[in-house]
Amino acid sequence: MSDSYFEARERELLGEQYQKMYASAQHVYRAVTVNLLRTDAQTFARSADFLEGPAPFCPESFYLKENTRPGRHPYHHAGVYYVQEASAAAPAALLNVQPGDRVLDLCAAPGGKSSQLGARLQGKGLLVSNEYVAARAQILKNNLERMGIFNAWVLNEDASHVADAFPEFFDKVLVDAPCSGEGMFRKEEEALRQHSQALVRQCSEMGAEILEHAARCLAPGGLLCYSTCTFAPEEDEGQIGRFLSRHPEFSLLPVRLAAGSPGEEARRCGWDFDASLCWRIYPCHGGEGHFMALLQKAGTPQPGRSVSHKAKPAKECGQFLDEMFGQLPGIPVQNGDRWYLVPELASPAGRLRTVRCGVELGSVVKGRFVPAHGLAMAFGSLCRNTEQLTLADPRTAAWLRGEEIAAKTAGNGWTAVLVDGFPLGWGKCSAGRVKNHYPKGLRNLG
Fold first, then answer.
1. How many CB atoms lie within 10 A of CB 23?
2. CA distances in angstroms from 221 to 117, 149, 166, 333, listed in the order given
3. I want to staple 227 with a disulfide (CB 3.0 to 4.6 A). Which of 67, 91, 178, 442 is the partner?
């Protein structure tokens, strides 16, 4: 690490502990987080041969073996796991999301933490995942679709607009704040090149503003997790102290993980609070770098709102769903020539820039229903017509390359293609062959 401002600051704050916390010889860890909508952590660990072992920051996170390519594995295509740095899995787990909760991820792209939150909902309640940058919001949408999070509402909004639309609505709120990225120095040279004291100040102010909007969104009695992947006092302990000074209705709850260390009083930036209730992860702990604080808003939780609009799907759409699935959770809603299955709690005041709400079901083309890829990823394992593959089956690799494969279990017509029971998209079966409808941009080419 060569940034002179960063090194001088950290040496002053850590003293003789500096070399231990930032040891340059420390191994750079790669990890995956299991999608609990698909399977449980123990079953995944037994079936995946590319894991080094469990990571200590949350129960569904695992280190990867060296020289693995997790992004090309069939389980990745099927949304069984999300590839992310090990310590990045910790903040979402702190919120202890339960089925039926109303959950907000206010700075959600690219989607790893949102995927965790949505998986813990188990299809019940509502996840609102917001991203301010439009291009990143599309990446967020794609990742949540791959992971099969069918009760997610993906927004591309300013945090203030989200707060206006959802006052005191959410039981749990995550703010993984845009930050100066000091925890990424070892992995991303660009983060080190762009770093400066001015960037730290800018990110601190941005984080403070986002926290204010998050506080407005949180229902009485709700939990707010604030996290960063930086070590800067102004963005971490100092940010929490500043927030608590303005919000006496919030209390700081203790965070304790199997690895890491308590927040540091030397980083409070002059604010009077118990910084040791926060949590830090340094490179020496087996992650790249994270700061976390868990806050609770005073008061008694209130009942959630219910949906205010319903629609009956087009005849062709309704027939397809009845024949292939039966009853699915959500409300069918038409938008242009496409149909969506919208979560029942998705009904805020005002208009919001929506990237996707719920699951895209498909559209009617020339009198016939054409199912969307998202429908297969959300509910493919429930489909009544399936082509069953396994990891060892050579047809699996062929399918992911976009090839037509022989049918062994599917009947004629649209069929959900599964690997070990996990969805890989739609095929159309005829005369003993399954025509490939896996999206071209997702295929394993080359």
1. 12
2. 19, 26, 16, 32
3. 91
Q: What is 4-297's CATH number?
A: 3.40.50.150
Taking a C-beta distance cutoff of 8 angstroms, is the pair 111, 144 a contact? Answer: yes
Fold of 385-446: 2.30.130
C-alpha distances in Å from residue 59, one per residue of 41, 75, 241, 357: 7, 19, 29, 29
Dist CA 107 CA 166 (whole Å)? 15
pLDDT band at residue 391 using 50, 70 and 90 as cut-offs: very high
Q: Exposed/middle/buried for 365, CB within 10 Å: 0-12, 13-18, 19+? A: exposed
- Cα–Cα dist 270/18, whole Å: 22
Q: Are 201 and 234 in contact (CB under 8 A)?
A: yes
As annotated, the binding site for S-adenosyl-L-methionine includes 107-113, 131, 158, 176
CB 206 within 8 A of CB 198: no
Of 156, 161, 167, 91, the C-alpha closest to 129 is 156
Residue range 51-73, pLDDT digits in tens = 999 999 999 999 999 889 999 99
Tell me the domain boundaries of the chain: 4-297, 385-446
Answer yes or no: pTM beyond 0.85. yes
